[in-house]
Amino acid sequence: LNKFERVLGKDCIAFKMLASDTRRLDAAAQKWAAAREMVTQTMQAIDDLKDIEKSGTINKKEQKQLTKFENTELDDLKRKEALAFDDFINIRDEYINNQAPASSAIVVFARQMDAVIASQIQVDSVPGQWVTEQAPGNSDVVWHNLALTTVERARKTTNSSIFAFFLCLFFMYPVNAVIAAMADVKGDIVGVFGEAMYNVIVSIILTIFLVIGHVLSLVVSRRTGYVAISSMDAFGASMYFWLLILNLVLGNLSST
Q: What letters, b where the CB count within 10 A reaches 16 and e where it falls short, cover 13-37?
C-alpha cells in the first residue's frame, strides 16, 4: 500500500480492508444475540404475567408458568447468555490480538485510472509473491476465501472440481437403477393405473434426481476457493450442466 501511495500519490487510496475469516466470530455473535433475545422475551413475559396477577385475573396455567419463569428458566437463560457473551469476547480478542499478516486485502482507489495503474505494478520485490487483480463487488466477496493464500484457494477449487467430476460421472448409476426397477414392475403399474400414469411416475422420479443434482451442485460450488459468489455460482451451473449432459443425453443414448 505504501508503494501505491509513493507511485500514485498519498490520496490515491480511498478505502482499504484486510481480508479475514470471521465466520467463528459471526457465529459467536449470532449465538450471543439469540441468547440475549431469549432473556429479553422471558423478562417481558414475566412482566406481562405479573400485570395479570396484579389485576387478579391470572389462571392456574399462567401462575404455573410465572413460577417456572421466575424460579428456574430465567436464571438458566441468563447463565446461557453469560456463557455466550464470554465465548464471543474470547473469540473477538483472538481476532484483535492476532498479529499474523493478512494474505489478501481489498483496496478501493479514488480514481479508476489509479486502479488500472495499480494492477500493472509489481507490488513486491519477488515476482509473483503479491499479485493485484480486480476485486469482486461489495456484496459478491467471499471473505473467508479471500483470507486464504493463492495456493490454499487453488487447492480447495481443485478438490471441489475432482469431487464434481466423479459426482457427474457416477450420478447416472442410481438414476438408471431406479428406472430399471420401475421397468421391472411396469406391467403391474400399467395394468392398474395405465400407461400415462407410469410415464408420469417416471418423470417425477427423474425430476427428483435432477433437483437433488442441482442442490449438490450448489453445495459443491460453495466448497470451492473462489473469492466471488458469482464465480461459485458459475462453477455450480457448469457442474449441473455436465450432470444433465451425462445423465440425460448419454443416459438416454445408452438405453436406446
A: beeeeebbebeeeeebbebbeebbe
| Closest to 144 in 3D by CA, of 219, 222, 233 | 222
Distances (CA, A) of 102 to 19, 34, 156, 214: 6, 31, 19, 35
Kind of pairing between the strands at 13-18 and 105-109: antiparallel
230 and 211 in contact (C-beta within 8 Å)?
no
> Which residues have a Cβ under 8 Å from the Cβ of 239 and sit 6 or more positions away?
164, 167, 168, 217, 220, 221
Instruction: Give per-residue pLDDT as tens, 67-107.
Output: 887 777 888 889 999 999 999 999 999 888 888 777 888 88
This prediction's pTM? 0.71
pLDDT in tens, 16-57: 888 888 888 999 999 999 999 999 998 888 888 888 878 877
Q: Which three cell numbers stand for residue 240?
A: 449441473
Please, what's the b/e burial string for 231-256 (b: 16 or more CB within 10 A of its CB; e: otherwise)?
Answer: bbbebbeebbebbbeebeeebeeeee
**Residue length of the chain:** 256
CA gap 83, 231 in Å, rounded:
38
What angle do the packed helices 150-170 and 229-244 form, to 10 degrees?
A: 20
Tell me the C-alpha distance between 146 and 142, whole Å.
Answer: 6
